[in-house]
Amino acid sequence: MFAIELDSASKYYKRDTGLEATRLTIEAGAFYGILGPVQSGKTTLLRLAMGYIRPTGGHVRVFDMDSVRDSVRIRRNVGYIPQTLGGHSNLTLRDLFTGIRRYVGPFDYSRTAELCVRFGLDMGMRYANLDAAERRRFAIVAAQLNDPPLMLVDEPSLELQSFERDNLFALLHELHQNGTTVVITTDRVEEISTHCTDVAVLHAGTLLSAGPVEQLEALHARRISVEADDARGFAEALGITNFSSDAQKVTFTYAGSADVFVKTLANYNVRSLTVSEPSTESVLVASRITKGGVVRETEV
Amino acid sequence: MRLRYELRRLLTAFLVVGLSCGVLTAGVYGVYVLFAAYGLTNPASYWFYDLHPSFRALFGVLSALDMSDPLAFFSRFYIPVLMLASFGVIVTAARSMNSDADMEELLYMQPVSRASVYWRRFGGGMLFVVLLNLLQLVIAVVGIMPIVNVTLPYLIAYAVIFLRITVYECVLWSVGMLLSVCIRKSRASAWCGVAVTALSWAAPILPAFTGLLAFLWYLTPSTYAFPEYALLVGPNYTLPQGIVLGVIFILCTLTGWLIYSRRETTAE
Known about the structure:
heterodimer; A: alpha/beta; Alpha-Beta Plaits; 2 domains; 28% strand; B: 13 helices; globular
């Protein structure tokens, strides 16, 4: 069964393209990442699934429910953590949770209290007084009141400090282990490669690639920078042809075996070595190439 | 249960409008004490004596009213209170859907349809108007009690006036809600509401002077507080007035519902 199914779904705003006609399925039980830079259509995709916006063409289904016709039923089964929460309600969090309970039905209040403690929220705080990070933490708690089988998280890292982010991902993994489908959107490659089982890469509203994380080679490639006596020779020994170099330093992208890399490196007198995660841009370029088009990095 | 939540949202507006009207009613009754004490009669006729008959018609000065009569006095001098209440209602209604639009994202995280939110707000507004007028009726009757002996016919007359005012303010609420749905900025919609209400007060100018578009008489709030307006528009004016108001009420309510329920939820 698919948690989310986009059947040629597109969304065009007055001036912008939100999402080009897209076919994408997200299996129930996946920990799915949607990767893309700003304005790539990630949030549009989640908002389509929530029924907040209607597709211009095609259909979006969540657990076989149509996102337009059954949006209320869908939201009964989906926990959604948006990027930002606005509003100036003077109600306390306790009052808001109580209000929400009227919509979602009875929920385990002790679990809510426990989550509030976990995310550093006091139930007596007034919503209007919460800063952006606290609102986001509030959204995290509010999204799970009815134990939804699908969690949609828009930019999990936004506004959160590193320990809060770790806390959120730990929670998402707990939920995932208990059978919840988790979908996150992000522009950080490391969040995809660290946490997700599957990934879809979006750019300017177009789906570039989708599939299991291990099949998207670009995600596993590393940016390598080596300073050695014969740095150029080292790169060539690895079979790298596309690299930038000066006299004693080479920089290139490597997606091959770590064992081969280390053993080859041992033959050279290395003064410095830098290994970094691939950039979102490099993943986009690689995804475009996979799709058939040849795109230079500067075009992305 | 859900209407109770809506009333909680409207509590501040209810207190502000209700108490302001109450204070103004007390002020009006203070003036009445003077009329009652000095036995003044028909002052309005003196004021309007030299004016064009259309002006007199516009202000409902048709018959020689005895201002020491509490009901006659009330129907004439309650106008400022009614004006304040109508502006209070339209401003509250015109902010009902857009003042907390930035909470939409949070609201629609829950399994709730846009239509149900609209109808809940609408129901809350109707209840707001009914409770507001009940409060005003109580204030009007209790306020006059120490001054005159309130008999049953007076009570019934007051109740009928407030029933008619309630109907008028329910229509105002539907117009205000439509403005609130159509105009995203709550301040702009509130000012539009004020303008619409002011126009409704001025509506009878045209028929008063030209005799054209007689239905505009039905739109002015003064026809709800002045029982003698029946004389202006004929003995059978209740039905056509009801039809005109009913059409406005239904049109505004349904249009607002259609627009709001088809609108997409926007992020802040």
